[in-house]
Amino acid sequence: MTSTDPALSATRTTCPYCGVGCGVLATPDGKGGATIAGDGEHPANFGRLCSKGSALGETIGLDSRLLHPMIRCKGSLERVAWPDALDHVAHRLKHIIARDGADSVAFYLSGQLLTEDYYVANKLMKGFIGSANVDTNSRLCMASSVAGHRRAFGADTVPGCYEDLDEADLLVLVGSNAAWCHPILYQRMLANKQKRGARVVVIDPRRTDSASEADLFLGLRPGTDAALFCGLLVHLADNGALDKSYIESHTVGLDETLVRARAIAGSLAATALATGLPEGDVAAFFQMFARTERVVTLYSQGVNQSAQGTDKVNAILNCHLATGRIGKVGASPFSLTGQPNAMGGREVGGLANQLAAHMGFTPPDIDRVRRFWKAPRIATHEGLKAVQMFEAIARGEIKALWVMGTNPAVSLPDADVVREALKKLELFIVSENVRENDTVTAGVQVLLPALAWGEKSGTVTNSERRISRQRAFLPAPGEARPDWWIMCEVAKRLGFGSAFDFKSAAEIFREHAALSAFENNGSRDFDIGGLKELSDEAFDAMSPMQWPLRRGELEPQRRFFADGRFYATDHKARFVAPEVPALRTETNAGRPLRLNTGRIRDQWHTMTRSGLSPRLGSHLAEPFVEIHPDDASRFGIIDDSFARVTTDYGQCILKVVVSERQQRGMLFAPIHWSAATSSGARVGALVAPFTDPYSGQPESKSTPVSIAPYEYVFRGFVLSCNEITLPDNVWWARVAVTGGYGYLFADNGDLARWPAWLRNIAGDDLAEYRDFGGGVYRAACFAGERIDTCLFAGPAHDAGDWDVVKTMFAQAALDDAARAMLLSGHSSEGLASTGPIVCACFGVGRATICDAIAGGAATAAEIGAKLKAGTNCGSCVPELKRLIAQAGAVSEKARVAGAAG
User: With 50 as the cut, is the pLDDT of residue 2 above it?
Assistant: First the structure.
C-alpha cells in the first residue's frame, strides 16, 4: 500500500453502530477489505473505538451479501433485472393503494439508514402516497425520550452535548449500561472522575459493569424509576434546592406536578418503600443531586423501553427544570441514543407521529410541509407506530409493507406473531444487504440489494446533535444501490418523478436543510439552513458539526434552554405529572419472575453485521439467561447448564449464567440471537407487546416469566469451512470463527447418528475417534493440509477444548504432529488454551489474563501494561477487576485453609 494511491488512502467516515457517532479512518487493503482505526480529529471519540468499531474490518466481506434484485416466483426467489423489480414494486403498490387506500401500505425503516435515505422515504410516504404509516426500529430505542422531550420542551431537543460529561461534578446513569453499550462515552465519564473527582451514581435493577466505578449504586425494583425521581423532586422542593427564578420565568405546571410527586413518593421513607431501596441510599442520592450544580443525568433503554417510559423521562426532566440545570456547561439531562442515525431519522420525521423537520401534524405544519414539497396528497394525521403497525398487518388492514435495513421478525416484541403476520402480506418488499435473515425468510416477495456501510455515502446524526459524514471507501458490489436511489426510482414509476429527481446524496441533503429553515425564524429547534446551499464539493468535505446551524451563523449552537426559551407557543417548559408507577403485567405462580432483555458488550442488534466478526464472537459465544443464585437454587438451575425460559408469548432454551449481579426475582437475556444464528434463542418472541401510551415504545424489560432446568446428555461443537445444517432436535448456536463457521451444540439424541451425519458432508480424508461407551465422538476431515470440518461431541464438560481446536482450525496448514493431536482436543505444542476472549480489542483471553494476575499483575492498569487488555475502549476493565478480585479470594481461601491445616 502506498500513500500516493488514492484508492488505498484512508477515508474519514463514521461508525455504523451506536449513537455515539465515532469517527473512523478506513483504509482499503485493495482486496475488498480495509484496516480500521479511530479518527483522532473527530470530536465524538478523539480516536478511540470500542470493540465493535475496532472489528469493523472483519465485517465487510461479500460472502453473505445480497447482490442482485430478486422476486419470488412459484415459491422461490429468482434474480431479476432492476427495471423489472422496480416496475413490479410500483405496479403492485399502485394497485393496492387504488383498491384499499393509502393507509393500506406502510414503510418500516431503520436507524441504520442515512439521513438522506430517511428523508426520501418520509417524503414519499407522507407527502405523495399520503399516509403516515412510516415508522422505524428507532421506536424500540428512543421513542420515549422523544415523547418526553416534546411534552416538556415543546420539541424533541437534546439540551446538552458530550463536553458536559467532561465538566459535570455528578454523573447519574439511569437504566444505562454505558460501560458496554456506549463505552467511548463511559470512558470520558471515568476520565472526569479520575481527573476532576466527579462522582458517579448508577441506577439500575442489574448491577452491570457500569456500576463497577460507581460511588453509589441504586438497584431499584423494575419500573420504579419515576417514583425515585418524584421523590427527588419532593426533596428538592422541601430542602430549598429549587431555582425559583428559573421556574417562575421559564416554566409552568410545577405545583400540580409536585402534588402528584408527593402522592407517589412524598418522603425519603416513601421513596425507599416504592423503589425497594435502602432509605440511607435514597438520602445519599438526593443529597448529592441537591448539593451539586453541575449534574448530568444520562438515561437509556432501562428508562425508554417501558410502558411508562415517557413518564420516566419526564420525571427526570422535572428535576432538571426545577433546578435550572439544563443546557448549561456540565448540567443537563441527556438521552443516550442507541442507533447510529436514530437522531437523523427524528430530524426528517421518520416516525409515524412526526411529519418532517421536527414539525408535527398541526394544520400550520401540514400546510407548510405541503407547500414546500408541493405534495399532492400529504398525510394529515399520525400513522401507526411500530408495534401497532405489525398488529394491523396481522389483522389484514395493511396489505403492503416495505422494510428497509432492519429485522423486525427478531427485534419486535411478540416476535413469533410478527413473523407470522409478515406471511399474510399481499406485497412484502425488503431492501437489505444480506441474502438471508429471519425477516427475509418470513416470506419476502421482493428483495432489493442495498449498499452497506463502507459503500454508501451520506450523513448521520449522533446523540449530541452532531451531523457527520459516512463516506464510501469501497466500490458498490454487484448491483447494490443506495436506498434513496431505490425509493426515487419507485417514486418516478408511481408518477412523482419531478419531486424525486435526485442525482446525489448531497442534493437530498440540501433539500433537507432547506426544509428545516423554511418559515422557521427561530420557531423550531431543528434548523440547518446554513447548509442548504452546500456545494457537492463542500458536502464531500464536510466536517462533523452540531445543529442548529442557522443561515448566516458561523458557529452552531452547542446547548439549548439555558436562556429559558423553549418551543411551546408561550416559550415555556412544562413540568409533567407522571402517572402512579405500575408495570403493565403481574407475576403469578406460573410466571413468578420477570424477564429483562438487552444488549451484550460485543454484539449489535440481531448480529447481521457484528455476527460476522470472529473477534466479537469470542467473548460471549452462546445465548444465555442470567439468574441470581437464590433464584437458581429455588428453581433447580445450575450454572453452565441449560434452562427453558417461558412467557405467555414464547419460549427459549438458553445457557445459564448464575450471577449475584442479577437482582432476585429477575432474569436477563440478550436480544441478539435469531433463527439464523441459533436453534431456539429468539428472545424477542418472549417479550410482551405492551407499549407506552405516548411514545408507542414497548415494555421490553419486565415480562412475567418462568424458568426450569433443561438437561442435555451431550455437548460439542462443529467447525467447518462452509455453512452447515445440524441434525434435527439439536440445540445450537452459530458463531463466526477465523476460516469459517463454528457451531456450539447440545444434544439428547443417539451419539451414533453423528458419524453418519458427518460423512454426508465430509470428504474422503476423514479421521475419527469413537468411544460410544464413554459418550465421546470426535472426527475431522481435511482438505489438503487444513481442516475442512471437524466435530467434537461428548459428556457435558468433555467435548474437547473449543478454543484450542478453533485455533488449529484457523491455521492454513497442520503438520503431522498437529493432525495426530487434533482429536485429543489439545495443542500439539502442549500450549494451554487462552480461554474465552475478555478484551476483544486486542484478542486477549481469560486464561492469559489469569496467568498475568498469577504472575503479579494486581491492577487493571498492570494487566494493560503487560497485555494491552483494557487500554483501548476500556469496556473490559470491569471484567479484569473481577478476575483480580476472584484470584484474590481464591488466594485468601487457600491461605486460610493452609493456616487451619
Answer: no
Q: Are 328 and 342 in contact (CB under 8 A)?
A: no
901, pLDDT greater than 80: no
Closest by CA to 461, choosing from 345, 612, 324, is 345
Q: Which helix (H) or strand (E) holds 94?
A: helix 82-100
Considering only CA atoms, which of 430, 379, 440, 355 is closest in space to residue 400? 430
Q: Long-range pairs for 272-280 at CB < 8 Å and ≥24 separation?
A: 274/224, 274/227, 274/228, 274/231, 274/581, 275/218, 275/220, 275/221, 275/224, 275/227, 275/228, 275/231, 276/220, 276/221, 276/224, 277/218, 277/219, 277/220, 277/228
From the CA atom positions of the chain, what is the Rg in Å?
Answer: 27
Report the range of poorest mean pLDDT among 270-284, 741-755, 785-799: 785-799
* Pairing of the two strands 170-174 and 295-299: parallel
User: In this predicted structure, what is the pLDDT of residue 3?
Assistant: 35
More confidently predicted of 901 and 620: 620
Spatial CA neighbour of 430 closest among 398, 393, 389, 402: 402
- The stretch 385-396 carries a mean pLDDT of 98
Half-sphere exposure of 322 (CA within 13 A, CB side): 30
Put residue 746 in one of left, alpha, beta given phi > 0 → left and psi -120 to 50 → alpha.
beta
Per-residue pLDDT tens over the stretch 682-736:
999 999 999 999 999 999 999 999 999 999 999 999 999 999 999 999 999 999 9
Cell numbers 460472502 label which residue? 63
- The Cα diameter of the chain in Å comes to 89
Cell of 104: 393500506
φ, ψ of residue 379 to 5 degrees: the values are -65, 140
